[in-house]
Design goal:
Order of helices and strands of chain A: HHHHEEH
Low-confidence stretches of chain A: none
Radius of gyration of chain A: 22 Å
Oligomer: homodimer
Largest sheet of chain A: 2 strands, antiparallel
Helix content of chain A: 55-70%
């Protein structure tokens, strides 16, 4: 069975080298050789990582035979962002509750103080 | 070498059953038996998924011997959210550029029209 798209994206992101490659690609499209420069890795090793990123839809590659520039593809990351949305609401609510609670504590501590 | 924390989180999220378990836990803490109900899976299989989520810091479990309720732990997801922040800026900028471009196209198409 093929893994679902979101699982493939998360699996691709579960590697620091692949995340570093994505971070480099925010600056703009570039070649595999340029991408490989900051890493202590062989070109085939980098190419393997790029294939994982490409299959997960996180990058696309140009079709020129000699120079196949890598480009970041935001849509896969947006899917991660959309998935996070439900959870973000959860921690925002928790934070609001905590803030209310702290407000109440402060009000109790300074019963005669002025409201700010 | 131990994988870094963010990689462990992404790896744990790269599975639809584990994401479904997290989605259930948004509603509140619950037991393994209750968690297993909607899945066509054995308790040991569910427990294995829970261990992966726990190791990745995505859930915590109560310490009572008989009933170890699972609870979602938002901090790991917030780290994913923080990581996404740099990319979110990128697609917001792209969207702004696209919007400006569309605005310019519309302005060209209606050179004598009124501005809305």
């Amino acid at each position: 069975m093929l893994p679902d798209r979101l699982s493939a994206t998360f699996a691709a992101l579960a590697d620091p080298t692949r995340r570093a490659i994505l971070a480099r690609l925010i600056l703009g499209e570039t070649s595999v050789t340029k991408l490989a420069e900051p890493f202590d890795m062989s070109l085939p090793a980098i190419s393997k990582h790029l294939k994982v990123l490409e299959r997960a839809g996180l990058i696309t590659r140009g079709r020129q035979a000699q120079w196949r520039p890598c480009r970041i593809e935001p849509s896969a990351l947006r899917r991660v962002d959309d998935w996070l949305e439900g959870y973000r609401r959860m921690w925002d609510e928790r934070f609001d509750r905590l803030e209310r609670y702290l407000g109440e504590l402060q009000a109790k501590e300074k019963p005669h103080g002025r409201k700010k």
